[in-house]
Amino acid sequence: MQMDKSKPVMVTGATGYVAGWLVKKLLEEGLTVHAAVRQPENKKKTAHLDELAANSPGEIKYFKADLLTEGAYFEAMQGCALVFHTASPFVTAVKDPQKDLIEPAVKGTENVLASVNQTPSVQKVVLTSSCAAIYTDASECKGHPNGELTEKIWNTTASLKYQPYSYSKTLAEKKAWEMQKAQNRWELVTINPALVMGPPLNPKATTSESFTIMKQLGDGTFKMGAPKLGMGIVDVRDVAEAHFRAAFYSNAKGRYITVGHNSDIYTASQTLLPKYEKYPLPKKVAPKWLIWLVGPMVNSAMTRKFIQNNVGHAFKANTSKIRQELGMEFLPLQKTMQDSLQALIDAKVV
């Protein structure tokens, strides 16, 4: 499907980490962006987007909307041919997974797509999903052909009690595909990134969960050694570009694993040396037994089961689909890591 760039596009969670870079790209391409946010009157939260719009050929318009309010996105969606649904909670330490993760992710997706069903102008939805909807633990990779994850795989191991964030992303994406298949007017494409790193456009976004690992690397938490905790890493700027291409490339279809690098915490941390030598960065691998002992004290989400299933296990995702169909190439891991740490230094978080 070929999309008309003269029509406005809607972005949910427009002040978010990934959404900020996506809005920047859309504005630079001259599009009119309908930004759906919780507090459009709060100019501090939209200042970075206003500045982008002022220096771009595109235009931004704000609409008040909340994920859990039925019909909240209907007004913002009017006249739009495209909807980018990026809004979803990303937290790992939660008291009530059902209330804090599952409901916002699933009900939020349901509310947005219910409005899409009521808006004849919408032709395509690009949903920000996650590799978490494909797998729970790095140890699962070796159970698949070539030891790698592909778009055909769905997460079947996360639950309300173990890795509830992954469970929420799985349920939300499944709900989206269920609603898409129940009609034949609008198309759905999902972007499934691994851990998103890189500099935020919104200075306040350094509080995002995406920066927890980077903060721990910079503040000395891993000074005695970093774990070989297998994970995928992708630059936030690449994730935004992937969303844009998923929307405007006519051949885009289905799910897209969006991973720049199959890596682990220790290997990624070494790209920060020697440029940031004066910071207490890890210079050796922390043994698994040590992570087993201290991990749960460093991060409540790092349970012993999580450590067992991820530390020392290689993460491997197949990115041939997004490279071939959307022509994606990914920024070097060193640039992503160094720009991430510099953002925290500039924000005086590290």
TrEMBL record:
Region forming the signal peptide: none
Domain (NAD-dependent epimerase/dehydratase) ranges: 9-249
InterPro entries in UniProt: Epimerase_deHydtase, NAD(P)-bd_dom_sf, NAD(P)_dehydrat-like
UniProt-recorded Gene Ontology molecular function terms: oxidoreductase activity, acting on the CH-OH group of donors, NAD or NADP as acceptor
Entry keywords, A to Z: Oxidoreductase
Entry-linked PANTHER family: NAD DEPENDENT EPIMERASE/DEHYDRATASE, VPS9 DOMAIN-CONTAINING PROTEIN
Protein name: NAD-dependent epimerase/dehydratase
Native source organism of the sequence: Saprospira grandis (strain Lewin)
